[in-house]
Structure formats: structure tokens, C-alpha cells
Amino acid sequence: MSALVHADTLRADPLADDTIAAVLAGHEGGQWEAIAIVNRLLAQWQSNAIVAAWRAPEGTPQVIADALESYLAQGSRLPAWADAEKIARAEDLFFDMSMLSCSLLFCASLPECYVVPNLAGVLHVAGQLEAHCDYRVRSTAAMIFPVMMRGGLGSPDGSGIAQVLKVRLIHATIRHLILRGNPSDAVSDGSIALAPLDAPCRNVYDTLYNNGWNVAAHGLPCNQEELAYTLLTFHFIFLRGLRRLGLGLSQKDEEAYLHAWNVMGHVLGIEDGLMPQTMVQAEASFGTIQARARMSTYQPDSRPALGAALMKAMQDEIPLRVLKPFPVLLTRYLCGDAARIDLGLDQRVSLLSRALFVAGMATTRAIDTVGRLVLPNFSICRMLTRIFGYQITVKFLMDQTRPLKLPPAVLNQVDHTVRRWGNDPKAPRWMNALEARLAGRRAEQPAEGRQPC
User: Fold this and answer.
1) What range does the record give for the signal peptide (predicted)?
2) Gyration radius (Cα) of the chain, Å
3) Nearest alpha-carbon partner for 38 in 61, 4, 8
4) Where is average pLDDT lowest: 39-43, 246-250, 268-272?
5) In Å, what is the CA distance from 286 to each residue of 64, 122, 228?
């Protein structure tokens, strides 16, 4: 094995991998038909209660039915260490910050995720971000919202566990297709290097299958280290972003937020030992994994293309030309110089735009510092990032012409959150009114008069 391949990159997810291996190897109609059957069945997993008692419908090929039922029986249980109080606190925090979290998702979590060359390479192969940036973001939201909505992980009526178990199987399918077999078989032959196939690519499955992969050089795709790193971008990077904006939480709240996401990580198949319990541990783990990942020799380097697609998606929603560079500038501020270089976000920005951004950040922090002497919860920064997050949420997540593929109950929760976005419980009433006016929010309609998005 290459000296750059860490042991964590050679471990994947035996439960999900064996499930997909059984499905694809045991179905007489071939692996593409088997994947299509599984996708149709996954659509039935609408809530935690459903996955806890799910049985394959009549007519399902027996090998697929047995594999999926066994997978759910083993994978749908929360870990023994799950703390219901911490999860509930994290849900409350997410509800308070849901609009702000969208800003940090775009300008911190996703950019840091794309810094890892191997992860960026898999996304590039799948063609999900450059060609379909909004699809990728919406798919991410389709997991985040169900997990963090109230009851997402702990209530039978929630759907967090159901959504995570779907994503876990998607990861296993990606691994199986890229490696053209079970990852455990690839690891047993440490020198395996699959050459690209010169074959038609009719869909994303063909593309993944034909791509080729070098386990000795890059470890397994979607391996334990990459899964743990991705989890860090959702909880640690979010919390770090709050700190950098002057909106940091208490240590107790930060650890509750980490805990809830770690519970989600367990359901996703991440090994418990790879998930940090504190911000200090998270920072150390993030730095170590990212430094090791930057030594990867994976080619082609897809990170600049992914970064450009993400920035463009945000810029397209900003009407004023002078403000269009703000997503790039905010991402640089939140992620730092190394990520800026990795993602190719070092392009020149007009002096006026940079001056407005720097002046805006400095002025905002100064006003917040003074304002909190009188009003402890006063924050212009929080208001502005919530406005940006609201615009992103409406444009990307709540578009009536392309609704999120979520259970109706969850969509109603998301819709309710968006409608209540202006009622920031930490802000004075006048700031809520100003926030609503600046974002052009429509007057709230009665819940019974609204249709779920």
C-alpha cells in the first residue's frame, strides 16, 4: 500500500456494503435492474416507524427482500450512548438557526467538504455538482432537515433515521459500482487498480462503473475517514462558522450539537471512535484528516470546478453586480487561505466589492459589540446571514416547481420553519421587522391556507 493511504481509508461500511453486494449479486435480472428495484423500495421509507417495521411488498425478489429487511433490522437502532436531552437541545438550536445554517452550508460546510481530492473526484465522476449544483445542495438538505427537525432521530413520526439509512445505501452503491464489487474484496487484494473502461455511459451508474479506481493509491471511495470528515463539515464547521461570525454557542450547546450529529453518524455507518465529543477533539480530527487528504495524488483535480459551480449557484441569486463576489469573499473568510487555494477561489475581486465586504464585516462586528452592551441578543451579523440563508432556502429548497423529495410531514415542518424565519427568538421585535423587510418576506399566511411545498 502507498504510504499516503491511512488505515481508516481502507475501511468502509460492512453492513451496507454486504447488503448491496447481496442485492446486486443475487438478482437474476442484472445489477442495473436490481438498483432500480431498490430505488423504488427506498421511496417507501417515509418515517422512522415505517423502517422499524418495514417488510418488502409482495412480488419483491426474495434476495432483495431478505437483504433490505436484514439491513433495516440492524441499522435502524440508535446507539446505546444516544442522549435524548442533548438531541432535543440540538433540535432546538437548529430550529432557531435554520436560516443561518443555510448560509453556512453554502459558504463553509460544502466548500470544506470539497477540499478532499478523493471526495471531489467521486462527485465529479457522478457529475452532480458541476452540472447539477442545485440538485446536490437539495439532496444534502433532504438529509439535514429530517435529521435535525424535532423528533427526527427520536420519534417514530420523524424521518431522520429513514433518510440517513437511504443515504447509507447510496454510499454503498457508489462504492460497489466504482470498485465493481464488494469493497471487502478490493481490500483483500491491496494492489488492486481498476483501469477505466471504454464503454457507453448511459447514466450515472455506468459512469461510476466505468471510471476505474486505484485502491493502493487512494483507499476505498467513501471510506470511513471520508465519512467522518464529511460529518465534521456538518457539525464542527458549522459551529466554527458561528464562532467566526461572532455568534458562537456555549460549550454545552456546542457539545449537544456535536452529539446529535454523532448519533446521526452512527446510523450512517461511521465508526464511533472516529466521531469527536468536543470542539477541541473535532478541530484536531478535522485538521489531521484534511492535511492527510491534501497529500492525495488523485487526478484530475476536480476541486476548482466544484468550487466554481457552488459559487456560481449563489451568485446567480444576487441581483447587484457589486455584491456578486460576496459568496466568494464570505467563503474565504469562513474557510481560510488553504481552502481558498484548493477550491480555486483566489480569483481577483474588484476593489469596490472587497472594500464593501471588509467594511461591512468590520462595521457589523463593531455595532454588535456595542449593541450587546445594552441588548445581550443584539446581532446585525445574525440578521444579515439569516436574510441570505432565507433567500437560499427559498430559491433552492422550497421551489414549488421542484419540491424536495421528503415525506409530507417533514415538508410541512420545513415550510413552517421558513414561514417563521422572521421571528428570531433572540432578536428584538424591531429587528425581526427590519429583517423581514430587507429580505422582502411576504406576509405570513395562516397555516391552514398554505399548501406544503
Assistant:
1) none
2) 22
3) 61
4) 246-250
5) 37, 20, 9
Amino acid sitting at position 292: R
Cell of 351: 476593489
CB within 8 Å of 96: residues ≥ 6 apart? 424, 425, 426
The C-alpha cell of 114 is what? 470539497
pLDDT digits (tens, 9 = 90+) for 197-223: 988 888 888 888 998 999 988 899 999
The dihedral sign for the CA sequence 114, 119, 124, 127: negative
The length of the chain is 453
Residue with cell 467521486: 122
User: Residue 309 CA to chain centroid, in angstroms?
Assistant: 16
Cβ neighbours around 28 below 10 Å, total: 8
Q: How far apart are CA 76 and CA 133, in angstroms?
A: 30
Show me where the domains of the chain are located. 7-293, 319-449
> Are the C-beta atoms of 177 and 221 separated by less than 8 Å?
no
Q: Apex CA 322: angle with CA 359 and CA 352, to 5°?
A: 45
Q: Element (H or E) spanning 213, and its range? A: strand 213-214
* Assigned C-alpha cell, 182: 464488494
Burial class (CB in 10 A: 0-12, 13-18, 19+), 300: exposed
Cell of 296: 492525495
72 CB neighbour count, 10 Å cutoff: 21
What span, in angstroms and rounded, lies between the C-alpha atoms of 164 and 170? 10
